[in-house]
Design brief:
215 residues; alpha/beta; eight-stranded parallel barrel; 53% helix; binds SN-glycerol-3-phosphate
Length: 215
């Protein structure tokens, strides 16, 4: 399972890219708003770092024509841009048009398996179930990801599943176990995955013991 960073913070992107931890970056309007910089500048910087992986950028329009216009403009910025379109009926129209033009599209804010099926039929390259936000409303986000995996496999659908709104390492292991293609998450979750106090203690113990070795 690939790991993408759900962030527009350039320092975080550099940090996790240099660790080999991430192979893509996802953003949304809320994530962009945290950086206090112009969207174009942020996107430009991200695409300069992520030269070999997809960079996801979301449209703001809520009507199909507006989404199509924004999607085309985003796709022109760099060959690795993936256009994020929300899973609403107008969004599906935009997906059909953009996908037919060869633009890579991710249908985002997916809360049901039926939205994922429609997105795949419209031509989406990715669908993004919002795992953590389903948990937030008392449902089971992992079950939705598993349902979509099962349906796509049963139907031979090749649209990739990118689990989003991932909140903790248990989400990550369960998503990997069920075979989703990508999980996108904040840097905090990657830090949690990469750090184990027992490993730290063991390494410190080795160094302490090394002091006893005659020099
Ligand atoms: O990629 C979607 C994601 O940014 C939503 O995450 O944590 O705001 O629910 P969250």
């Amino acid at each position: 399972m690939k790991i993408f960073l759900d962030s527009a913070n350039i320092n975080d992107i550099k940090k996790f890219y240099s660790m080999g931890a991430i192979s893509g970056v996802t953003t949304n309007p809320s994530i962009i708003s945290r950086e206090n910089r112009k969207f174009e500048d942020i996107l430009n910087d991200i695409t300069l770092i992520m030269v070999d992986g997809p960079v996801f950028a979301e449209v703001l329009a809520l009507d199909a024509d507006g989404m199509i216009e924004e999607g085309r403009a985003l796709a022109k910025k760099s060959p690795n841009i993936v256009v994020k379109i929300p899973a609403i009926p107008e969004g599906l129209k935009a997906v059909k048009t953009l996908a037919a033009e060869g633009i890579t599209v991710c249908v985002t804010v997916v809360y049901s398996a039926t939205q994922a099926i429609l997105a795949a039929n419209a031509g989406a390259s990715y669908v993004a179930p919002f795992v953590g936000r389903l948990d937030d409303i008392g449902e089971n986000g992992l079950n939705l990801a598993a349902d979509i995996r099962e349906i796509f496999d049963a139907q031979g659908i090749t649209t990739k599943i990118i689990a989003a709104s991932v909140r903790h390492p248990v989400h990550v292991t369960e998503l990997a176990r069920m075979g989703v293609d990508v999980a996108t998450m904040p840097g905090k979750v990657i830090d949690q995955m990469a750090t184990n106090p027992n490993t730290q203690r063991a390494v410190e113990g080795f160094l302490k013991d090394w002091e006893k070795v005659p020099k």
